[in-house]
Structures are given as structure tokens and as C-alpha cells.
Amino acid sequence: MNGLLGYCRQGFEPELAAELGERAAAAGIAGYPRASRDDGYVLFVTGDEADARALDRALPFRDLVFARQKLRLLAELRGIDPKDRLTPLLAALPEGLRVGDLWVEHPDSDAGKPLSGLARSFGNALRPALRKAGVLSAREDARLPRLHVCLLAGDHLLLALADPRDSSPWPLGIPRLKLLPDAPSRSALKLEEAFLALLGPEERERQLKPGMTAADLGAAPGGWTWVLTRHHLRVTSVDNGPLRQHVLDTGLVEHLRADGFHWKPAQPLDWMVCDMVEQPSRVAARMAQWFAEGWCRQAVFNLKLPMKKRWQETRLCLDLFAAQAGKPLTIRARQLYHDREEITVLAMPAG
Ligand SMILES: C[S@@+](CC[C@H](N)C(=O)[O-])C[C@H]1O[C@@H](n2cnc3c(N)ncnc32)[C@H](O)[C@@H]1O
What we know:
Bound molecules: S-adenosylmethionine
Mean pLDDT: 97
Protein name: Ribosomal RNA large subunit methyltransferase M
Structural class: alpha/beta
Shape: elongated
Strand order of the largest sheet: 2-3-1-4-7-6-5
Subunit structure: Monomer.
GO biological process, one term: rRNA processing
Catalytic activity: cytidine(2498) in 23S rRNA + S-adenosyl-L-methionine = 2'-O-methylcytidine(2498) in 23S rRNA + S-adenosyl-L-homocysteine + H(+)
Number of helices: 10
């Protein structure tokens, strides 16, 4: 079987299927999505391997919104004998394949999670067998593709390849972040993940520097503000609700009780972040105004998704934002692991 395999948040398979379908059509590559509600993954099946490779190139992982991981599918194995999964797996690998790493995974779904123990033990058996067969390098090698085995059931699995430079660096596409005891809210993890997932290491170093200035719109109880202060940014936090005292005690934060849709900074800021719960098109329009007016250089904001037509709304809001921002921006949007019915958008000057 040829095509792409994408992992997603359980329940968001229709959104990922719609996104892959639209992006494949735009790239002129024929195929169809295969998705079932609550599976936690979507296949996009193409005619042949050349089409799958072309689609893989046309859809960089960084540009996908609803995919936690993007892989190129090699094979689907059904009805395998639980007493010997190795033999059919090795037989299904393309001749001459060399990989630099192996990840045995399962979808992040109700049906997939109970397979984590099997994934671990099967990985332990498979690794030496792949080395012996000359498929897996002796040491991890990020210049070679990474082999993914995605267990769907004890007798059913998908084989796929990742380009380590064009995929999530985390197993299952899930960053393991710990909520520190002094984080004011779980939301703090969203901004932390956004900086990790949407900026590269060099961008993070260059663009999040001590002494930079930021606004946090919809800041209470202060999770995002707290993340910004941990990067030693000076933050104006706008919310009618209270901020946790220890966040104010950092000495880096000014709390303004104001409407985040009307407040604007006196001076241009390095960053604006926004977690206000509002209609996504209203948020997108206000965010665009910040860029059009030059009030911030870069931003991270959340767009709450509606109940229906979530992919269409996502595309409309991102298009509206890009059109109204009035300048060339690099825009990256993702439904992060810590996001629920929402997506997170990063915008910064293009180039
Ligand atoms: C999801 S919470 C933000 C959580 C915060 N990011 C954190 O990490 O702790 C949304 C916040 O937006 C605020 N909010 C909603 N509409 C607003 C508006 N028009 N102006 C200012 N704040 C607003 C609410 O008061 C609420 O505190």
C-alpha cells in the first residue's frame, strides 16, 4: 500500500482527512483518505509509490495543522500470527532498505493505548532482528529514514518511514512535558509546547531572549505569562480576571484589567500571545490587526474550533489572518497535544 500515514488527536480524523485531501488535490496528486472516527490516525492512499513520495514532499510536516506525525506508508499487515510477527514484517520491507532508528508505536486512541506494552516488547524483539538483517544501523543515525511500526491490534500493523528532518521528533508525535508545581494553569503547557513544536532550536534561541517585551491577551490565571517570564521576557498581561500572586512577584509582569480586543501597546512589542476564548474569526481578525499596525513582531495565538466544519473554519481563519496582516509572514499552525478543541498559531516575519 502506498500513501501517507498521519497521527492525530482522537476524534479529529475527519479534520486531518479533509486537510490531507485538500492539500493533495492542490498538489495535483490523486488519492483518497481512509479514516474512521476515533482511530487516532488517517491514511491517505495514493496510486503508486512515486505519488506517495511526491505527496510526502508536497506536504511538509511543518505545514500540517491536524497531524501530530507524518509518515510515508510502506505496508499494511493484517491477520499476522501473534506467535511470529517478525517473519511477515521482515518480508514486507522493501529490498535494500536501511534505516537509522526504529519506533514501535500505537495510535493515541482508546483502542491503541492498551497496545503500549506489546509495542515495547515487540520493539525489543524487532530491533536486534532488524540489525541482523542489515536494515537497522548499529547506532542511531538521523541521516537515514526512521522505521515506524504502528500497531493497530495484536495481529494488524502499519509499516511506515519518517524523514527525521520532516517529522515530529517525539514518539506518537507527543512531547512529554511536565507541569511544574508553580505553573498557574495547565494552559502553560500549551505555550511551552507551541515554542517547542512551532519554532526550531535556533529560532527559539534567537527569538526568545531575556529582556524582550510581550503582551498576553486573556492572561488569567497567568500560565502563559508565567512561561514568558521563565524566558525572562517583560510581560503586559491583559485580563479582567486575577493573576496568581507569584507570577506578579517575578517583577516582570504588569497586569492590566482591560479588554484584550481593544487594548494596544504604546510601543511595538517583540511578542504578543493570546488565549482569549472567542469566535475564531474574531480572534484571527484582531491578531491580523496587531501585525498590520506593527504592534508586535511575532505572535502565538489560539483559535477555538467550532463544533462543525472545523477544517473549513481553520482554513478560513488562517487565510483571513494572512490576508489582513498586510505583510509577508511565516505562519505555522498546529493542533498541539495539549490543545483540545483548538489550534495554536505562530506568526513571525517571513524569512
Ligand atoms: C483560557 S483562559 C486563559 C488561560 C491562560 N492562557 C493561562 O495560561 O492561564 C481565557 C482567558 O481569557 C480571558 N478573556 C476572554 N475574553 C477577554 C477579553 N475580551 N479581554 C481580556 N480577557 C479576556 C478570560 O477572562 C480568561 O481568563
